[in-house]
Structure formats: C-alpha cells, structure tokens
# Entry
Amino acid sequence: MRFHNINIRNILQEALNYGGIIVDVRSQEEFKKGHIPMAINIPIEDIKAGNVSLPKGKVIIVYCETGGRSAMAARELNNMGFRVINTIGGLVEYKGSLTKNGR
# Structure
C-alpha cells in the first residue's frame, strides 16, 4: 500500500471529496495556536508509538508545519493499514483561515 501527496491548499476540498479526516501531526501547543478547520490533533510522537484510534475505513489526510512530520506520519499510518493522503507544503503554504484554541 502507498500513500499519495497533494498540495496543502487543496486539503479541505480533498477532505470533502473523500469524506476524510484531517489530522494535524504537530504538537498540542502548535495545534492550539492555529490549525486547519475540522482538523484533529494526533502528534507525530503518538503516531510513532502506535497511539492511534482512527477508523480504518476513512481516508486520513495529514499535515504539519512544513511537510516533514506529515511525510513521516503518512508512512507510519500507511504501514498500520490506513488509507493516507500526505500534504505538501504544510501550514507555511496554507492560505486559508485557521481555527485557534480547542479541537
């Protein structure tokens, strides 16, 4: 199984197209400062440790600040059997509004 990459600017449209779950793999502190609307937070450390409770039938769309951690998370989640889409560019390339505080 492999994952594919999309531009971060298309993340919301892809989530709608696939009925996917957007996962921010940054730290909880980074997430609270601002995240993509509808995103949930599962830090990369939790993913590497296998602490993931996501539905296997859903497409998981991952992102981070610049793209490095999301690529690692995509690989890990893919190896766990999830259908994964990785975003390229990270939040530094995202042009939409962000949600602050909370989940």
